[in-house]
Amino acid sequence: MKIPAIAPARGTWRMKVFPNGEFGIGYIPKERKKAEDKRFDRGLVHGYQVVSLPAEHELPTGEKYYDAGDKKDSISKLDSASELSHSKKRYGGKGITAYGKKMVRNGAFLLHKEAKRAIGKSLQFSTLTIPPLPPEQERCICDNWGELVRRFFEECSRQYKRYGKQFKYVCVSEIQPKRWEKRREVGLHLHYIYNAEFIKSEGTYCIKDDFVRQLWRRVLMNLLHKHTYTPGGSNSPFPTPMYRREKVKKSAESYIGKYMSKGGKIVDEVREIKGQEYLPKQWWSLDSNTRKDVARGTITTRDSGSVSFLLDKISEESKEILYVHEAIITFEFTYLQADGCIAHMLVGYGGRMSLSLRREIEVLLSF
């Protein structure tokens, strides 16, 4: 495996290690790019030269242009970023992001670690669904999913505060595959892991199953009443949603991780068939304290000694590197009167290390 040089003449290397051992190491330019250079890299025309991966763009007039490889005279008209922003994409339209998955995994990792150390605490894995609904109500719930989830967890947090406890959770949203395949229903599910606090004086947990069912049904009905209720219209009784709960016995990451590894194809189908308003804008969430814990437990450094140490482990294919992948950028640059050229540049690595190796890096940084 080829290892790039440390601290290149015009840049440096930055390393980031998350609490669960996931890491990223990449090249950071020493100098910030000028605005003109950023336009150049995005494939916008600069004089008579275009630098970008080939990409097609259609203007409101119906004319089509290409960032690279197109020899039409009209290419010189692509002169500003505003001409390319006519079709604004909705946030969350491609499902959960790589960053979101990483935050969810690390949040679950820290919650599990905390639960193992505490007395009277356990982790519970819960799933909440929405029942079959008319198209208008289904679209309303999908379009306002973030608001719905936020209100649900706010009420859970208030319930914990009544007992002097702190509610912590990690959640992901999922489109139910079977309902989509059979009836073309989005059928959003909310999967979440939370710290179940046992109250000895009452012989039960802070949040009971009946409380969760009634709360979820109430926030669903309130949302629909707010956005879809019409005086004198047909507002049929809201059916009871489904809820299930189980104790997390092994890895919390594994429990919630499997719901992030599937569904990409379904997301594309929903967007194409029903429209992006049937997709939630937010696919994951953590409580503020767990988010802060992830940030506090993340190592971010440009220390050359630590970076060299990790790169050596990667090149030696150490067993402490559980998996690794290269980050490579491919450039295609085309002149109007010349053939295209392709170049590859290794700009970093991503992967996961053992927790013992992570501790070694912490020790190195403490000196």
Task: Tell me the layout of helices and strands.
Blueprint: E1 11-17, E2 22-29, H1 35-41, E3 49-51, E4 56-58, E5 64-66, H2 98-117, E6 121-129, H3 135-143, H4 145-162, E7 169-175, H5 177-183, E8 188-199, E9 204-205, H6 209-228, E10 243-247, H7 252-257, H8 264-273, E11 284-286, H9 288-296, E12 299-301, H10 304-315, E13 321-335, E14 341-353, H11 355-366
Antiparallel strand pairs: 1-2, 1-12, 2-14, 3-13, 4-5, 6-8, 6-10, 7-8, 7-11, 8-9, 13-14
Helix pairs in contact: 2-9, 3-6, 4-6
Gist of the model:
The protein is 35% helix and 25% strand.
Structure characterization notes:
- The protein is α+β, with helices and mostly antiparallel strands and 367 residues long.
- It has two domains: 11-86 and 299-366, no CATH class; 98-296, Alpha-Beta Plaits (2-Layer Sandwich).
- 35% of the residues lie in helices and 25% in strands.
- It contains eleven helices and 14 strands.
- The strands form three sheets. The chain has a six-stranded antiparallel β-sheet with strand order 3-13-14-2-1-12.
- A hairpin with a 5-residue loop joins strand 13 and strand 14.
- Helix 2 packs across helix 9.
- The longest helix has 20 residues, at 98-117.
- The protein is globular.
- Mean pLDDT is 79; it is low at 1-9, 43-54, 65-87 and 230-234.
Oligomeric state as shown: single chain
Structural class: alpha+beta
At CATH level 3, the topology of the largest domain is Alpha-Beta Plaits
What fraction, in percent, of the residue positions are helical?
25-40%
CATH hierarchy, class of the largest domain? Alpha Beta
The total of helices stands at 11
Radius of gyration, rounded?
25 Å
Mean pLDDT over the full residue set: 79
Main sheet summary: 6 strands, antiparallel
Strand content: 25-35%
CATH architectural designation of the largest domain:
2-Layer Sandwich
N-to-C terminal Cα separation, in Å?
A: 30 Å
What is the number of beta strands? 14
